[in-house]
Write a structure and sequence with these properties.
The protein has six helices and no strands. It is globular and about 35 Å long.
Length: about 100
């Protein structure tokens, strides 16, 4: 199971219809990749965070990544035409600072 499903993302974006499912799915994948890159996670670290295993050490990382990914999807969804990727990246760096710097 994924950290964030399409249904959770649609609920966050307040989208009821299936008309934009494909676009939201693409934005969700882009947001995940962007957050993984900003957090400087290896593929193995991301797989551990994205897994279903109950691990009290990984739980705070999951929640932080979930917030960052939903923020990124929301930003990309709302600013489809004029997204400022530099601004988005700076915000994600702030959200993911603890993971990025290995504090957690």
């Amino acid at each position: 199971m994924a950290l964030i499903t399409l249904e959770e993302t649609k609920a966050y974006l307040r989208v009821d219809s299936a008309d934009e499912d494909a676009m939201i799915g693409i934005l969700l994948n882009s947001a995940k990749r962007l957050c993984v890159d900003v957090a400087r996670l290896s593929d193995d670290q991301w797989a551990e965070i994205n897994s279903d295993e109950e691990d009290p050490v990984v739980a705070p990382l999951r929640e932080t990544m979930k917030v960052a990914i939903l923020y990124a999807v929301g930003y990309l969804f709302e600013h489809r035409e004029e997204a400022d990727h530099h601004e988005l990246t700076l915000t994600l760096r702030s959200l993911l600072f603890a993971i990025r710097e290995g504090v957690v």
